[in-house]
């Protein structure tokens, strides 16, 4: 079996003929991963996830889940895939247990699954409460419980922590971690918050304006951020500054009295400053300048 549980090949999408909401998306979700699908609002996350699940139709989809083609093998795929894309549609006048029982019968799952998914989502104690009285976080967990009834191998969730209070966010995060580590599920989860994804994901894909700007492990992402970091430094002697730094860093003279220094680790700004001053170069300004990806990160972080 293929190591990619979810993959797309040059996936494009537009709601109209002339628009490209998604542009050449090559998603690779490894088996056993928690894949954080990160991007600011409007980036194309929900559209991508809806395409994966066959909720939107693309003319030339190039989408495979569990080694099978979507939408051709939709039934087979959905039998092994759970999802929570919008707010869960719950019967508010019924208890959590009764809600699960409705979906269990519809999906023809064994009766024992209800207790199991209640346990997994830590809703056993609230099982006999009407869902009208559930907090938003509990409703969300019940939605995940419903998605788990048929014991899927893959779980796809669209911003499951949206609108939750800090406690609710932590509960969902812990649940996703348990689902991955204890229940062995591969999880694809979208978010517009870098900090959230960093706490949870083993792999990350960053989408911006319909393009996948980065894809890799969490370690690769952090490494990538640092590698691309650039310092802009204003000095009183450009030639000397270049001499001091160029053995160790990539230096470019940016006209006048400014140089750009590429560095790899976040704490190297202090070292660079120290080297310059120690070499007799006056430093009047030292600032981090972003490349596009870093500006995007700032957007994501501050969203
Ligand atoms: N049903 C739709 N019809 C037309 N445009 C849409 C529709 N849904 C989303 N869009 C547009 O597609 C882009 C991506 O949206 P979406 O996938 O919802 O982004 P995200 O989930 O990352 O916030 C946005 O510009 C949005 O306005
Ligand atoms: Mg969305």
Name of the CATH architecture of the largest domain: 3-Layer(aba) Sandwich
Per CATH, the superfamily of the largest domain is P-loop containing nucleotide triphosphate hydrolases
User: Major sheet, described briefly?
Assistant: 6 strands, mixed
Shape: elongated
Key phrases:
303 residues, alpha/beta, Alpha-Beta Plaits, 2 domains, six-stranded mixed beta sheet, four-stranded antiparallel beta sheet, binds adenosine-5'-diphosphate, binds magnesium ion, P-loop_NTPase, ATP binding, ATP-binding, ABC_transporter-like_ATP-bd, nucleotide-binding
Helix and strand topology:
Blueprint: E1 4-8, E2 11-13, E3 22-25, E4 28-30, E5 34-38, H1 45-52, E6 63-65, E7 68-70, H2 74-79, E8 81-84, H3 96-107, H4 112-120, H5 136-148, E9 154-157, H6 166-181, E10 186-191, H7 194-200, E11 203-208, E12 211-217, H8 218-227, E13 230-235, H9 238-245, E14 250-253, E15 258-262, H10 268-278, E16 283-289, H11 292-302
Parallel strand pairs: 5-10, 5-11, 8-9, 9-10
Antiparallel strand pairs: 1-4, 1-6, 2-3, 6-7, 11-12, 13-15, 13-16, 14-15
Helix pairs in contact: 4-5, 5-6
The structure holds adenosine-5'-diphosphate and magnesium ion (MG).
Magnesium ion binds next to helix 1.
């Amino acid at each position: 079996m293929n190591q990619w549980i979810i993959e797309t090949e040059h996936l494009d999408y537009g709601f109209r003929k002339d628009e490209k909401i998604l542009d050449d998306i090559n998603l690779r979700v490894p088996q056993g991963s928690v894949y954080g699908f990160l991007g600011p609002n409007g980036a194309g996350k929900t559209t991508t996830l809806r395409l994966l699940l066959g909720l939107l139709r693309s003319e030339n989809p190039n989408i495979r889940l569990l080694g099978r083609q979507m939408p051709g093998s939709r039934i087979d795929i959905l039998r092994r895939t759970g999802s929570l894309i919008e707010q869960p549609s719950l019967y508010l006048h019924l208890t959590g247990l009764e809600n699960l029982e409705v979906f269990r019968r519809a999906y023809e799952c064994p009766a024992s699954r209800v207790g199991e998914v209640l346990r997994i989502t830590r809703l056993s104690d609230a099982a006999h409460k009407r869902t009208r009285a559930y907090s938003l976080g509990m409703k969300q967990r019940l939605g995940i419980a419903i998605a788990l009834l048929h014991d899927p191998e893959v779980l796809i969730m669209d911003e499951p922590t949206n609108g939750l209070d800090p406690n609710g966010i932590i509960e969902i995060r812990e649940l996703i971690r348990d689902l991955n580590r204890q229940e062995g599920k591969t999880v694809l989860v979208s978010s517009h918050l870098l900090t959230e994804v960093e706490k949870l994901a083993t792999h990350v894909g960053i989408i911006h304006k319909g393009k996948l700007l980065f894809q890799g492990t969490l370690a690769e992402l952090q490494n990538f951020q640092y590698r691309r970091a650039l310092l802009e430094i204003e000095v009183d002697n450009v030639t000397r500054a270049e001499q001091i730094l160029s053995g160790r860093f990539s230096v470019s003279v940016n006209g006048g009295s400014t140089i750009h220094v590429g560095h790899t680790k976040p704490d190297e700004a202090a070292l660079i400053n120290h080297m310059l001053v120690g070499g007799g170069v006056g430093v009047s300004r030292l600032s981090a300048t972003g490349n596009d990806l870093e500006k995007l990160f700032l957007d994501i972080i501050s969203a």
